[in-house]
Automatic annotation (TrEMBL):
It comes from Clunio marinus. InterPro entries: Gln_synt_N (IPR008147), Gln_synt_N_sf (IPR036651), Gln_synth/guanido_kin_cat_dom (IPR014746), Gln_synth_cat_dom (IPR008146), Gln_synth_gly_rich_site (IPR027303), Gln_synth_N_conserv_site (IPR027302), Glutamine_Synthetase (IPR050292). Pfam families: Gln-synt_C. It catalyses: L-glutamate + NH4(+) + ATP = L-glutamine + ADP + phosphate + H(+). Residues 147-397 form the GS catalytic domain. Keywords: ATP-binding, Ligase, Nucleotide-binding. Its EC number is 6.3.1.2. GO terms for molecular function: ATP binding; glutamine synthetase activity. Homooctamer. This is Glutamine synthetase. The keyword Nucleus does not apply.
Length: 397
């Protein structure tokens, strides 16, 4: 028995050594084919140091919007001669919707309406801004991918109850070949277990991007709450909120844009796909935390339980609202395994990460607080998710 155990240990050690060698060889050329990673980023500094004329004081405004896919952003810059103090101070603008899956060429002007302002961490000017917009068709109606308008309408009807949202955004780093960053080219890393909230070069990849993202979000004015390495290697999470009303959803879109831009500079690809690797690997979610004034008061657990009861009766409605493809993306993720619930059946519980909706242990003990809806996918539109929660729990729709 002792010799057999020794043989097994030797075999495992040899196998591990071979895996380490294969991994090192396969990842040695990581990002080799990424053109952005090969650019000399220091050359930009010579231009960012240029002094602008004093009068008028020009600022650059990056107009940002969601395209017709419902999961990607587009942007273009505009030079202004006045520093805006609120979105209403900014001019409306247009773009070619036929190039963003939102219009046909014969009548393609889509309108941009500014909704929120953020400091721009990528521009040199101290007053340069990101302008988050929503989009409208030529007839003035919201674009099909504009779910912000519906959420705003729902919030306007429920704002007296002070609804708060906090969103946990999971995502995965990829190399330019579509392989998770740092994974062996011809194999797989060791099984899940040592990577969650880990430290060490053999467990974590991409921390520089993650920490740059956190700093840039805080500078921009995103209500950034934290970050951690996730269960699958090359997978990460950050959180925004909790925030009142529209802010958490606005912040999530702007924080996604900031992450894409920073990763672009590093030559790394970011995916919000909810199941980037098939098989026994965790998917990626957009867990959404929700509370009202009644839930946060002493004895608020009763209001939380009432909200969960309402959610249980509208499961299909929420599944359709919780990814950009009406539930098709979540079919790959919500398997009733790997810390997910089943897509076909609603469930709830205390401190149970295999449930559709979870009551955290601290909330159950305090008998007040919030609920966590674990069904939204990582590529969900937060406006669609938050609107569905408001409609079901507060407007009885």
């Amino acid at each position: 028995m002792a010799l057999r155990c020794l043989g097994v240990l030797i075999s495992k050690e040899i196998s591990a050594g071979m895996t380490r060698r294969i991994s090192t060889t396969a990842t040695r050329k990581m990002l080799h084919d990424s053109p952005n990673a090969q650019l000399n980023k220091q050359l930009l500094n010579r231009y960012t140091r240029l002094q602008q004329q004093i009068d008028p004081k020009y600022i650059q405004a990056t107009y940002l919007w969601i395209d017709g896919t419902g999961e990607n952003v587009r942007l273009k810059d505009r030079v202004l001669e006045k520093i805006p103090t609120r979105p209403e101070d900014l001019p409306h603008w247009q773009y070619d919707g036929s190039s963003t899956y939102q219009a046909l060429g014969g009548n393609s002007d889509i309108s941009l309406v500014p909704r929120a302002i953020y400091r721009d961490p990528f521009k040199a000017g101290e007053n340069d801004i990101i302008v988050l917009c929503d989009t409208y068709k030529p007839d003035g109606t919201p674009c099909d991918s504009n779910h912000r308008a519906a959420m705003q309408a729902a919030y306007d009807q429920t704002k007296d109850e002070e609804p708060w949202f906090g969103i946990e955004q999971e995502y995965t780093f990829l190399d330019v070949d579509g392989r998770p960053l740092g994974w062996p080219a011809n194999g797989f890393p060791g099984p899940q277990g040592p990577y969650y909230c880990a430290a060490g070069a053999d467990k974590v990849v991409g921390r520089d991007v993650v920490e740059a993202h956190a700093l840039a979000c805080l500078y921009a004015g995103v209500q950034f709450a934290g970050t951690n390495a996730e269960v699958m290697p090359a997978q990460w999470e950050y959180q925004v909120g909790p925030s009142l009303g529209m802010k958490a959803a606005d912040d999530l879109w702007v924080s996604r844009y900031i992450l894409w831009r920073i990763a672009e500079e590093f030559g790394v690809v970011v995916t919000f796909d909810p199941k980037p690797v098939e098989g026994n690997w965790n998917g990626a979610g957009g867990h959404t935390n929700f509370s009202t004034n009644a839930m946060r008061k002493d004895g608020g657990i009763s209001a939380i339980e009432q909200a969960i009861e309402k959610l249980s009766k509208q499961h299909l409605k929420h599944i359709k609202a919780y990814d950009p493809r009406g539930g098709k993306d979540n079919e790959r993720r919500l398997l009733g395994a790997l810390e997910t619930s089943s897509i076909d059946k609603f469930s709830s519980g205390v401190a149970d990460r295999s449930c559709s909706v979870r009551i955290p242990r601290g909330v159950a003990n305090a008998k007040k607080g919030y609920l966590e809806d674990r069904r939204p996918s990582s590529n969900m539109d937060p406006y669609s998710v938050c609107n569905a929660i408001l409609e079901t729990t507060m407007l009885n729709k």
